[in-house]
Design a protein that fits this description.
Elements: H1 9-15, H2 21-25, H3 28-42, E1 46-48, H4 55-59, E2 65-67, E3 71-73, H5 83-89, H6 96-108, E4 114-120, H7 122-131, H8 139-147, H9 149-173, E5 177-182, H10 190-211, E6 216-221, H11 226-236, E7 240-242, H12 249-253, E8 260-265, H13 267-272, H14 274-288, E9 293-297, H15 307-318
Helix pairs in contact: 3-6, 5-9, 6-9, 7-8, 7-9, 8-9, 9-10, 10-11, 14-15
Length: 319
């Protein structure tokens, strides 16, 4: 999952040399190194490029910055008229270091190890662009969408377009599969979930698949209900469905016609270790036994995760 190496001392040592998080993401040799670090230690079956979902608004000139202890910030969008100007100011050159890093990681990975690229889903990226930061239940974006639906739809259409180009460029640079992170899908009521989560992701999947039909696409509508997850899987036509920690993995897995499932170990269980971790692993392995499955966490790994617990998890999975 995202920032998969941040619990490693070798990651923290390199991160300390960077003047900012975005500088770290946009320095290809560093992004390559920290993406490869967990592979060297553990021999994972797949790696995910070190980057961030907010590189897209950065390329849209929203003045993205990361403040230690406070998270990401950018210039908020309070005037609907601003949205009409974004397509003209979009600068894809900003994203070239990401593709250079993808190519470098692919060159450094064992041939049998998959490489994932990613982007944020249009809804999640839009929530940060409207508010200028993360907020409680992303209320500013939800209010904006209700008050200015035409302008918000234009923003979503733009994000579909530029995100598709971003994913295709990562695939061309060497990514085998791409993942779409909708980290704020949980705050949408059913009708809005269809309009702002399912429909834009479907449009994004269609654009990527039309251009690069051989690439795998994973969707991660974090916090969606079981019904929402099943509709998302069916209507977006993703190849893989990532399920968050609270998702009913066992209940979903019995449904017919689903894509490959991915998930959903609680990151805190991995921190805790012991019998609690083993029970959680057993529950997931029981679900995974008779179907295509990607064993993963239900969200990003925590910095305080003991390395010994990761080693134990891998030993259990690999038998």
């Amino acid at each position: 999952m995202r920032q998969a190496g941040r619990y490693l001392p070798e990651y923290r040592a390199l991160r300390a040399k960077s003047k900012s998080f975005l500088h770290f993401c946009y320095t290809p040799e560093w992004a390559i190194e920290v993406t490869l670090q967990p592979i060297r230690r553990f021999g994972f079956d797949a790696s995910i490029i070190f980057s961030d979902i907010l590189t897209i608004p950065d390329a849209l000139q929203r003045n993205v910055r990361f403040t230690e202890g406070e998270g990401p910030e950018m210039d908020p969008i309070t005037d609907p008229a601003v949205i009409a100007t974004l397509r003209d100011v979009y600068n894809p050159e900003i994203l070239k270091p990401v593709y250079e890093a993808v190519a470098g990681v692919r060159a450094g990975l064992p041939k049998e190890t998959a490489l994932l690229g990613f982007c944020g889903a249009p809804w999640t990226v839009a929530t940060y662009m409207i508010a200028g930061k993360g907020t409680k239940e992303q209320a500013p974006a939800r209010l904006f969408a209700y008050r200015h639906p035409v302008a918000f739809q234009a923003l979503m259409d733009l994000l579909v377009d530029v995100s598709a180009v971003h994913l295709i460029a990562q695939i061309d640079a060497g990514a085998d599969t791409v993942q779409i992170f909708d980290s704020w899908a949980s705050v949408l009521p059913a009708e809005q979930f269809d309009r702002w989560c399912i429909q834009p992701v479907k449009a994004l999947v269609d654009k990527v698949r039309a251009a690069r039909p051989y690439a795998g696409i994973i969707g991660f509508p974090r916090g969606a209900t079981t019904e929402g997850l099943l509709r998302f899987a069916s209507e977006t036509d993703v190849d893989g469905l990532s399920i968050d920690t609270a998702g009913d993995l066992a209940g979903i897995a019995v449904k017919a016609g689903l894509p490959t499932l991915q998930g959903n170990l609680d990151p805190l269980a991995l921190v805790a270790g012991g019998e609690g971790l083993d029970r959680a692993i057993d529950a997931i392995l029981a679900v995974a036994a008779d179907r295509p499955f990607i064993f993963n966490l239900g969200h990003g790994i925590l910095p305080e995760t003991p390395i010994a617990h990761v080693e134990h998890l891998l030993k259990r999975i690999r038998g």
